[in-house]
Amino acid sequence: MSIRHSLLALLQDQPRYGYQLRVEFENRTASTWPLNIGQVYTTLDRLERDGLVSNDGSDGEGHVVYSITAAGTAEVQNWFAAPVERNNPPRNELAIKLALAVTLPGVDVQAIIQAQRVASIRALQDYTKARRDTAANQRAADTAWLLVLDSLIFQTEAEVRWLDLCEARMLQQAQTAGQATPRKSSNGVTVEEAAPLIADSRR
Question: Among 3, 24, 93, 99, which is least packed, fewest CB within 10 Å?
Answer without folding.
Answer: 93
